[in-house]
Design goal:
Elements (H helix, E strand, L loop, with lengths): L52 H4 L7 E2 L3 E5 L9 E6 L10 H19 L4 E7 L10 E7 L10 H7 L5 H16 L4 E2 L4
Helix pairs in contact: 2-4
This protein binds zinc ion.
Amino acid sequence: MRLVARVTFVDTPLPDFVNWPTFPFSGELRVRPLDAPSLPEPPRDGEDIAGCRACQAPDDAYIWVDDRWRVRATEQPPGLPLVLLLEPRMHLDLGDLPNLEAAELGLLTVRIERAMRSVDGVARVHVNRWGDGAAHLHLWFLARPAGALQLRGSFLSMWDDILPPVSTRTWRDNLSFVAAYLADQGGRSMLES
Ligand SMILES: [Zn+2]
């Protein structure tokens, strides 16, 4: 008889981070059982350029653009003061960027972080790239409100979905500020009246 290894996660101990003050949830928690690997993996959104929403979006769906890059906001006011995404115009993923775009990605990451950190009430900006959802490269920039120590660190993106949305007026003011800040050193704000 052949023995097949089986792993059960029912009794997997919870990780230490569930006790961190930044962890957004309380109460009884259990680790989900891990699914069997799904191979080959299904395509991501926009894997085929003809169905890529980023490639088909017009410039006026963005808050700032230049010849090779565009910055967009979330569709609705987020829970955080600002959540922005940086995308290349070309349909590429991170590891596919040519040297010029790779170098510009570093410069723009710094510039966007600096712009968002200059918004009133923003203490810190976290930069994330996941890439399991959409194939077209998109970097996330999440602004943490000043003084909100409970939102520090890696759970910030969860808190963004948990917190009530910021007011539309505050959100638009923040977007206009960042778009103008970026345009000051090149490209153009799409929010200019
Ligand atoms: Zn694309």
